[in-house]
Automatic annotation (TrEMBL):
Keywords: Zinc. InterPro entries: GlcNAc_PI_deacetylase-related, LmbE-like_dom_sf. The keyword Protein biosynthesis does not apply. It comes from the Bacteria. One of its GO terms (molecular function) is hydrolase activity, acting on carbon-nitrogen (but not peptide) bonds, in linear amides. The keyword Acetylation does not apply. This is PIG-L family deacetylase. It comes from Arthrobacter cavernae. GO terms for biological process: glycoside metabolic process.
Length: 259
């Protein structure tokens, strides 16, 4: 299955690359729906297997003090329902504390384990670089996701001597083809996915996270505007909605072992 409209800078040729399994890492429930639910809906509609890994429980989210005792369960249920709307049922949690996520070896090892288990064609994650134009995209947990995943993807996932207990347990080293990052600086974006046919599914998924959005109508206007602007920035036809990514070739035709 192919997805995307590549800019001149993108290493990913959407007309030739095949994607069958995708593993997505985010910090909190709802991050993936804001960042990539349209692309994910397109993937699953084409038969791609997509899995989520939410690295914290989102326990510091929300606005209503009355929800404190139940916020973890509430957000997990919101994420389950939102994921189902875009064709995803496989959801993993690392249960880190919201606001305290760090790229420790304990966390990196869990990520390496999951990547080796699923062996995806694409790992999709939040960007490790801060977005100064829209700093809300760069919650410290978001940046920690990006750094954790980047460290895991290279070299640990493909190094049989990194976390050797994983290989001893039967989880062999794996060379990941592609890393897709979102929510980073616009200057890094090199790949735009036409999600025009999946905007309604994306917005429906975001609406499920009602505990996080006191102004649903304002949120929808903002998201629609961002998607339209992405289409313009990506050079897509007028009226196109798009999601944008920084795509990195981790192991491709130009890769030399060890470099």
């Amino acid at each position: 299955m192919t997805t995307g409209v590549s800019s001149a800078k993108s290493p990913f040729n959407a007309s030739t690359e095949r994607v069958e399994r995708v593993l997505c890492f985010t910090a909190h429930p709802d991050d993936i729906d804001f960042g990539a639910a349209g692309t994910i809906a397109a993937w699953t509609a084409a038969g791609v297997q997509v899995s989520y890994c939410i690295m914290t429980d989102g326990d510091a989210g929300g606005f209503d003090p009355a929800h404190r005792d139940e916020i973890i369960e509430m957000r997990a249920e919101e994420q389950r329902r939102a994921a189902a709307l875009v064709g995803v049922t496989d959801i993993h949690y690392l249960h880190e504390r919201d606001g305290y996520l760090e790229p420790t070896h304990e966390v990196i090892k869990q990520v390496v384990k999951l990547i080796r288990e699923i062996r995806p064609d694409v790992v999709l994650a939040m960007h490790p670089e801060r977005n100064w134009d829209r700093i809300q995209k760069s919650h410290p947990d978001h940046l920690a996701v990006g750094e954790t995943i980047t460290r895991a993807v290279y070299p640990a996932v493909e190094n049989p001597f990194a976390y050797p207990e994983l290989a001893e347990a039967g989880l062999e080293a794996y060379k990941l083809p592609w890393l897709w990052l979102f929510a980073g600086p616009e200057s890094r974006e090199n790949h735009f996915v036409d999600v025009t046919d999946h905007v309604d599914a994306k917005l429906a998924a975001i609406r499920i996270h009602a505990s996080q959005h006191p102004d649903i109508e304002g949120m929808e206007r903002t998201v629609r505007g961002m998607l339209a602007r992405n289409g313009e920035r990506g050079g897509l036809p007028a009226g196109t909605s798009a999601e944008c990514f920084h795509v990195v070739s981790v192991n491709g035709t130009s890769t030399i072992a060890g470099f």
